[in-house]
Amino acid sequence: IRKAVETSKAAKEQTLIKQHKQVWWQEQERLNGLRCKLESEIKSCLNEESIGNECFCELRNFEKELSEQWCTYLKAVIDPIHQLRAVDFVKKQSKAVFERLDQEQQEVEKDLSDWSVKLLDDSSEEKANLLSEQPTELETLECPYPDLKSSILNEFWSFTEKYQKKLEDFDLQLEDTR
Question: Band of the pLDDT at 84, cuts 50, 70, 90?
Answer without folding.
Answer: confident
